[in-house]
Every structure is written in C-alpha cells, then in structure tokens.
Amino acid sequence: MAQDNTPFSLQGMAYADAKVEFNGIELPGVKSFDFSERQEKVNNPGTGKNPVSRSRKGTEQNASMELDLGTIEKLEDISPTGKLIDVPAGTLVISVARDDGTKKMYTFNLFEWMEDGLSGSTGDDELLRSTDCIFGTWSKTTL
C-alpha cells in the first residue's frame, strides 16, 4: 500500500502507509489531502429573546489535494478535454494504516477537481500542485 518514502498527509497527520485511488486508478503522486464539511445552522427565535429551535441548511464539502506532475498527467489522460478540471466526477478512495495497525478507508463520492495548472521553477526536483476540490458525500470505514 505504500506509495514511496514520502509520508502521505491526511488532515495534517502523516501516514507512511497510504493508497489513493480515483475510480479504481491508483494515484501514487498524491502527497496530501485535507477536507471539510460545513453546515449552516440558524437559531429560530420564539416570542422571547431565546431560540426555541434550530434550522439546518444544506452542507458544503470542500477539499484540497497536493499532487505531483505525473499524477496530474495520469488524470488528464482520462479527461475528455485533457484538463484536470474536466475529469468526470467520480469516487476518490483513500486508505491509510495507522502505526497501531488500524486501517481506515475514506470514500468521497462525486469528487471533482476545481483548479487546473502547474507552476514551478528551474531546478525543481519535483513539481507539486495544490488544488481545490469538491465532493458530495463522504464516509469513513475501519478495515
């Protein structure tokens, strides 16, 4: 399951043993992944000053991913236009193993990239791109 000697970072925690797949295609050049889910909640006032209930609105899911040039090119190959932002929505699966041997699998449905492009400079050993992403739902499973 190990990608290379560089630890993979999920939510800021480093894992030496990790695997990232998009629609069954392994993405060994993903270096980090962070995500958040936010739901707006609003107090509903009663006849006095204090709320008597709460309204919940829809959720908003966002993510960011750092990946290398080889992985970007692999994804561009499955894009109808050759652009990262046009890769069809799919399922991103991240499997990590903790130091205690516990394995977790994170599944992100309706996953898409929201940015394209790459920047670097002469002498860079490895070109990395940090890109914003969006997803619909997610789940975590202990394996």
Textual characterization of the structure:
With 143 residues, the chain is mostly beta strands. The two termini are 14 Å apart. The chain has one domain: Elongation Factor Tu (Ef-tu), domain 3. The protein is 6% helix and 55% strand. It is built from one helix and ten strands; from the N terminus they run ββββββαββββ. The radius of gyration is 19 Å and the shape is globular. Strands 1, 2, 3, 4, 5, 6, 7, 8, 9 and 10 form a ten-stranded mixed β-sheet that branches. The protein has one helix spanning 69-77, and strands spanning 8-10, 13-15, 17-22, 25-26, 30-45, 51-68, 90-97, 103-113, 128-134, 138-142.
Short description:
The chain is mainly β and 143 residues long. The chain has a single domain, classed as Beta Barrel (Elongation Factor Tu (Ef-tu), domain 3), CATH 2.40.30.
